[in-house]
Structure formats: structure tokens, C-alpha cells
Amino acid sequence: MRPNFHDVAGLWDCDGSLRDIYVQNTEAVHWDRFDRLLSQYEFTYTFDGMPLPFPGSRGALANREGSHLLSIPLDGTVINCHFFIAQQLELDISAKDVAGPLEHERILAFVENLAEALELPADITPENWEESPFLTYSPATKSWLMHEDPP
Fold this sequence. Notes:
By secondary structure, this protein is α+β, with helices and mostly antiparallel strands. It has 3 helices and 9 strands; from the N terminus they run E-H-E-E-H-E-E-E-H-E-E-E.
């Protein structure tokens, strides 16, 4: 059962920071699964601010000569991926875009789809606080864990 919009203190507080989604210990197979998952969503891709065809996750990770931005719009919110490192899939969301339960549900559904596609747990954390998640979704048990003490 998904936590509801009001269950997790601070999760979507508009404090000027982003919320991150982390999937740890990713390998080539997980990035290939991420690419397949993307076929279920509309998205845009830019390289150094220029719209381009998406080269695939492995192509983006292999090119360190500029900045990547893959944006997945979810009816009012946008989930972004910057392809920082191959061992970790990191996405970000602006908390100010999460106005209520509808956006919250869409994001949690996306995180469930992501974790199940990659067959790895996914955390939602404060920006750059990967060790202090608000929530973790486990695809093995198809369940959410609410953590007690995020910052």
C-alpha cells in the first residue's frame, strides 16, 4: 500500500530543494531496463541544452563531454535524469510541483514502475541525501518503507 500524501513529514515541503530518487548498484543491464521503461513514457532529451535524439542510457553515460538532461513529464510534475554515474540512477523532482495527492500518487507509481523494471529498490530522499531516504520502495516485496528520521 502506498503512503498517502500526508503520511511522510517533509516529503514535499517547498523548501527550495529538490527531491531525489536513487537506485543504487546499477549495472549495464539495469540501464537497458531503464531504457525499456522509458518507452512507456513521453520524454525529452537534451545534451548541453540542445534537443537531440536520446542516445540510450549507456550512450549518455559514455559521453562525459557535456551535460545530459532527460525529462519525463507526469501531468504537472517533471522527473529529470542527468546520467551522473553508471553505478547509480539518480532522478530529481521539484517539490514545488507536487501540489497534492494526485501528483504524489503519480510519482509513487513511477517509482514503483522504475524499481520493478530494474529489479532494485528505489529511495526518495531530500536533495543529495542518498543515505537518508524519506521512502524506499522494494520490488521484491512490492511494498513501501517509511523512514523515521530524514533531515
